[in-house]
Amino acid sequence: MQLSPEMVHSKASEEAVAWFDVNLCEQQPGAGSGEACNRSISWSPPPVGSVKCNVGVSWGGPERLCGASWIIRNQAGRVLMHSRRAFTGVKSKLEAELTGFCWVAESLASLHYSNIIIESNCALVREALLDKAKFPWFSELDR
């Protein structure tokens, strides 16, 4: 099946809105299933001359499945590109986040993006990259 560019744009926009709704609600305490999400957290544009890449990663423990997605927007909030991918055999949330971030980095490099801000709610990756004393087995990331 081949979709028109308008249909692809429409579906991508719908999926982006749904993704942000789910991920922003997950971050807010008390926003359980069926409750309205308080939209106090909002997207902010990147500085002039750069773009912003929002990243999301989810992990299904018993199934050992991981899903990752990213969306790139310019200063006006216009979607420039997006992608999603699934991974199998992922043993932990940390592994899921690291796998997702490696895929995002590879994607951005192959698309020749530079001067990009990466924003995510993946707390474990942030901690692993910033606190090397807690994660000594990631020391090879410096090389």
UniProtKB/TrEMBL annotation:
One of its GO terms (molecular function) is nucleic acid binding. It holds the Pfam family RVT_3. It comes from the Eukaryota. InterPro entries: RNase_H-like_dom_plant, RNase_H-like_EbsB-rel, RNaseH_domain. Residues 62-132 form the RNase H type-1 domain. Signal peptide: none annotated. PANTHER family: BNAC02G40300D PROTEIN, REVERSE TRANSCRIPTASE-LIKE PROTEIN. This is RNase H type-1 domain-containing protein. It comes from Brassica cretica. The lineage of its organism: Eukaryota, Viridiplantae, Streptophyta, Embryophyta, Tracheophyta.
